[in-house]
Amino acid sequence: AQSVTQLGSHVSVSEGALVLLRCNYSSSVPPYLFWYVQYPNQGLQLLLKYTSAATLVKGINGFEAEFKKSETSFHLTKPSAHMSDAAEYFCAVSLQGGSNYKLTFGKGTLLTVNP
Amino acid sequence: DAGVTQSPTHLIKTRGQHVTLRCSPISGHKSVSWYQQVLGQGPQFIFQYYEKEERGRGNFPDRFSARQFPNYSSELNVNALLLGDSALYLCASSADRSSYNSPLHFGNGTRLTVT
Q: How many CB atoms lie within 10 A of CB A96?
């Protein structure tokens, strides 16, 4: 079984400040990890994914995340927030070697960017 | 190329009724998954179909069913609607059966309200 915990349901930053969204996972086997973004009234868009290659993963829109097995974490960062980054962010996990494409999502973190 | 399309975009039903939601995957994608997103929560996995066969089922009652057609489009059916079924229903498609190498592309969802 796998699960995801996103620490902080709401994060507020100033434009130009560092964005840090936290995600911890639990998985009985090596996981694949994902970050998705959801804008109001839209579906989810993939930001980046970890699939056991490099532990530092770069995604779209300047986001990146680092897989830390010892901490069971996959935190999402961006050096400088932009107003357009305001959205809800979801961390998700799936099992390596799985026979299907089941993603288990966290509850999400709403990012607010203040001018 | 068109993305994942879902219909209808919004739907209002009464308790006890039946509902059918439709999804057309990205051209060439053979896998379709359904997720339920209750307000304020992350999406929850309902079903995955790949090559017209069920490949995964989440923890949902038998009132929920789905199927995939020869053209890879899909329907999600929910019988005997309850108030708790009110949610955004997301369809996602991918080229492959599992999550290793194939991103999951989400549609914008169908907003179901049960009164």
A: 14
Which strands, in side-by-side order, build the sheet including B74-78?
A: B5-7, B19-24, B74-78, B64-68
* Predicted pLDDT at A31: 86
**B40 interfaces chain A, CB cutoff of 8 Å:** yes
| Cβ contact, residue pair B106, A43, below 8 Å | yes
- DSSP assignment of A57-88: EE-GGG-EEEEEGGGTEEEEEESS--GGG-EE
Pairing of strands B31-37, A56-58: unpaired
Give the residue-averaged pLDDT of A108-115.
96
Locate A89 and state its tokens. 């962010």
pLDDT digits (tens, 9 = 90+) for A22-79: 999 998 788 889 999 999 888 899 999 998 778 899 999 999 999 999 999 999 999 9
The predicted pLDDT at position B103 comes to 81
Q: Which residues of A touch B4 (CB under 8 A)?
A: 43
Chain A nearest C-alpha distance from B81 (Å): 23
- Residue B44 has what DSSP assignment? E
Residues 53-82 of chain A with CB under 8 A from chain B are none
